[in-house]
């Protein structure tokens, strides 16, 4: 699709009532109410804490696409992009998609985890490791929806941490994708090839925005993961991972890229026979590395030598507000790593607020170098 058109659509239909990283069911309910005169909104089950889980169904075409977001409650970027997409389709744009596809979206599979801003559900279970045992009500809701809807394609929408690089490079993995393995041998089944073909279409378009900033997620097989399970059942499944972009800790720029990826995906499925023949370029997408820290303080002096200090933000919900808390997680030679922000100690000692030399697990929004307080905040 034309990149200029995609940007225009996003700027026109971005949903203004949701912003940032902390998105809960209360934020989504009025948005679904607004859409309900055109799309079908169903309560398809309830969470551990009896919060409703909804699906939104739209389109009338024969190609059926199932997509779900916030399986992990603290991964909300794709949820925002889903409502940007829904606004676009609600207003009658991209009509060929709705003519050729029937789309079912579960915008928040884990409302309890979303409220608590945690990866897990209220029973402290990772729903993406419960695809076989189906011990949790949310897992059962997704499985029941899959069984009843019988999708031709699945889109598994997630978010990834700021540590990922696109390959073994200093390029941030702003987006990552995966065609999950269907078996322990990672066989190139037809479903896998079809998912790879879709990812290639996304990559070709989004490289204009993100040159060398798109990664390929590790495809180690785990039948307990939902994507692996559905791929094993011969349903082409694409994993989306919304990552980091420069200075975009609220993931609002990444939101744009996810939106565009979703539009490209739906348009490609709607207007192409996805045979799986065009899968080869998938393997040219670099596999994700783990080469980034949020902050690195270079060349800090310690009693036993000069080392770098690696700091990552801990995302914590405090009084219903999301806070990014800097925490030291590494003191070592980090010359093979990169950072979203770099400070230089110039062989000086780095002190805490109590004038002690910093150590692993130190948390604060500043450090002191040469009697100067340096902020570690965003």
TrEMBL record:
Say which domain of life the source belongs to. Answer: Bacteria
Keywords (A to Z) from UniProt: Hydrolase, Metalloprotease, Protease, Zinc
- Protease in keyword set: yes
Task: Tell me where in this chain the Peptidase M14 domain is found.
Answer: 9-269
Residue ranges crossing the lipid bilayer per the database entry: none
InterPro entries documented for this protein: Peptidase_M14 (IPR000834)
Cofactors (names): Zn(2+)
UniProt lists the family membership as follows: Belongs to the peptidase M14 family.
Quote the protein name from its UniProt record: Peptidase M14
